[in-house]
Design brief:
The protein is globular and about 40 Å long. The chain is built from no helices and ten strands. The termini are far apart. It has a six-stranded mixed sheet, with no helix packed on it. Strands 1-3-8-7 form a four-stranded antiparallel sheet, with no helix packed on it. The protein is mostly beta strands.
């Protein structure tokens, strides 16, 4: 099983970013994908999850209205798109296979800076 994420991103404040997480080695639709981030010096912060089978999502209240999760079953890839970026969104973003969190992506550094 592998979750492979896209590379580091640098964005200006107010922009959007989209990070991918390509799954392999298991049936993509059999497990939710969770998104978690870790800002510098902070703990892990859960952003929400998506069920790749039907696209149903659950977002942490903090991110509602600013984040969108999608999943492409044809490529076994999950995406997180975060808009209206601010400096506080600078973090490493991870995807993880839910519920056991037994497999994680390698993390994607997103830096928001002018």
């Amino acid at each position: 099983v592998q979750l492979v994420q896209s590379g580091a991103e640098l964005r200006n404040p107010g922009a959007s970013v989209k990070v991918s997480c390509k799954a392999s080695g298991y049936t993509f639709t059999s497990h939710y994908i969770d998104w978690v981030r870790q800002a510098p010096g902070q703990g892990l912060e859960w952003m929400g999850r998506i069920d790749p089978e039907d696209g149903v999502t659950k977002y942490a209240q903090k991110f509602q209205g600013r984040v969108i999760f999608t999943a492409d079953t044809s490529t076994s890839t999950a995406y997180v798109e975060l808009s209206s970026l601010r400096s506080e969104d600078t973090a490493v973003y991870y995807c993880a296979r839910s519920w056991a969190y037994d497999y994680w992506g390698q993390g994607t550094q997103v830096t928001v800076s002018s």
